[in-house]
Amino acid sequence: EVQLLESGGGLVQPGGSLRLSCTASGFTFSSYAINWVRQAPGKGLEWVSAIGGSGADTWYGDSVKGRFTISRDNSRNTVYLQMNSLRAEDTAIYYCARDLSRYNSGCFDFWGQGTLVTVSS
Amino acid sequence: EIVLTQSPGTLVLPPGERATLSCRSSQSVSGNYVAWYQRTPGQAPRLLIYGASRRATGIPDRFSGSGSGTDFNFTISRLEPEDSAVYYCQQYGTSPWTFGQGTKVEIK
After folding, report:
1. A44 contacts in chain B (CB < 8 Å)
2. Hey, are the CB atoms on B47 and A107 less than 8 Å from each other?
């Protein structure tokens, strides 16, 4: 059974940093790209970032480019999202989602339950 | 970026009825790469349809998708109580991938 489990969310002050983790099981991890998608309170879903199966290729949404860094450790079946210079508008539930393919096709066939990030003083 | 507009915002129907949801794009979706997801409270989002009309693995055939260009539809042919959820369309033809705001389906 495919499972994705996010962790690392919490309360952080504006300008602070946080690292999210997404640990996967039930499939050959390196064969799939992994994405982060977020949903702010009362807002819709927003694609944040993606990383290819090998980790060599990464993609970012404009709202997080230059502040967030995605990486993966295939030996640990884990993807990370390092979030720096956090803003109030980054407050959201962050979901990790498996891509249909090794590359960033943009379609997500399995999702985790999400982890809440709150940016507030 | 491509903006997706879903309608209606909320749909209330009895069990056994047919539900049709609409997703309109601000520009033509490349390759008709449109997906539909279901999200129920406390659950992870679930992929139902991709490529506008292809059912994901394990999805019952009462769920279907259609459309091309800028207009896409999602249909549940016979509503069941467990179909109460918010349904989102998404385009993945042009980066950045974008989602509609969702349609809430209530079964009453």
Report:
1. 88, 99-102
2. yes
Report residue B83: phi and psi, to 5°: -85, -5
pLDDT digits (tens, 9 = 90+) for A35-75: 999 999 999 999 999 999 999 999 999 999 999 999 999 99
DSSP A65: T
Euclidean distance between CA atoms B43 and A95, whole angstroms: 11
Q: How far apart are CA A57 and CA B64, in angstroms?
A: 33
| Residue B9 CB neighbours (<10 A) | 9
Which of these, A83, A84, A65, lies nearest to A21 by C-alpha position? A83
Question: To the nearest whole angstrom, how far is the Cα of B26 from the nearest Cα of chain A?
Answer: 16
Mean pLDDT per block of 10 residues along chain B (108 residues) reads 97 97 98 96 92 96 97 97 96 95 96
